[in-house]
Amino acid sequence: MNKQVFGLIGLGVMGRSFVLNVERNGFGVAVYNRTTETTKKYVEGVAAGKNIKPAYTLEEFVGALERPRRIMLLVKAGAPVDAIIQQLVPLLDKKDLIIDGGNSYFLDTERRARELEAKGINFLGMGVSGGEEGALWGPSLMPGGSINAYREVESIMSAVAAKAEEDGEPCVTYIGPGGSGHYVKMVHNGIEYGDMQLIAEAYDLLKRALGLSSQEFYDIFAEWNKAELSSFLIEITAKVFKKIDEETGKPLVDFILDKAGQKGTGKWMSENA
């Protein structure tokens, strides 16, 4: 029976997309999710007919992978990561590899690396940037941990990562030991949140002081995106101003609540600054 090259646990939005990316690039994948119905729906839906093997227990999942096993976690940061690692460890062999691809705190990543390496199991903490579309078509990847562990998945990560427009180089590089990969992702997110706050404040000032229309906002942000402010955030903000609420026929931005949630990485960066 053929074994799969790569395994992924966690079929949320990011996990579902990342698996399709890995498989599309020629690597067989085994998948597992805590709820079996999610796994079944996935493999019978968008993953049907692809080299993606479902597993409905962790024992079945681990048994479906070639050795040394390469297992990526895309689950909620914090206790869920520790819980799944605790369940996996008795099933693994020395030299197997666990990759945490969530937004984990870098000190938690360093602790997990120490604990697993003491058992002979390799561990990488890897930042993944790009959201659902990035996970599917090419994310930016920030792996940190043992360099030898990274070599085990370098070809896979180089294949699935986004490619730079200038030279076609994959948007992934080994960051360094310990929790350095998640540290870089934390800083990346913190900078992004700062940019988002600046954009929100620019909108607020122009809206309240000048009373600009959504069309005028679109024109301004689209123009900004042609010069030194050109960026993904400015680009998508301009697009937001063009969206119309289907029920009222008015600009959707006028109905967006003045509040935002956060997962903690921005706070962590401020605390580490």
TrEMBL record:
InterPro entries in the record: 6-PGluconate_DH-like_C_sf (IPR008927), 6PGD_dom2 (IPR013328), 6PGDH_C (IPR006114), 6PGDH_NADP-bd (IPR006115), 6PGdom_BS (IPR006184), NAD(P)-bd_dom_sf (IPR036291), Pgluconate_DH (IPR006183)
GO-annotated biological processes: D-gluconate metabolic process; pentose-phosphate shunt
Transmembrane segment boundaries: none
SUPFAM superfamilies hit by this protein: 6-phosphogluconate dehydrogenase C-terminal domain-like, NAD(P)-binding Rossmann-fold domains
Gene Ontology MF terms in the entry: NADP binding; phosphogluconate dehydrogenase (decarboxylating) activity
Protein keywords: Gluconate utilization, Oxidoreductase
Presence of the UniProt keyword NADP in the record: no
Coiled coil: none
Family matches, as Gene3D superfamilies: N-(1-d-carboxylethyl)-l-norvaline Dehydrogenase, domain 2 (1.10.1040.10), NAD(P)-binding Rossmann-like Domain (3.40.50.720)
Pfam families with a match to the protein in the record: 6PGD, NAD_binding_2
PROSITE patterns given in the database record: 6PGD (PS00461)
Domain 6-phosphogluconate dehydrogenase C-terminal residue range list: 181-273
SMART domains: 6PGD (SM01350)
Sequence similarity: Belongs to the 6-phosphogluconate dehydrogenase family.
Annotated NCBIfam families: PRK09287.1 (NF006765)
Name of protein: 6-phosphogluconate dehydrogenase C-terminal domain-containing protein
Source organism of this protein record: marine sediment metagenome
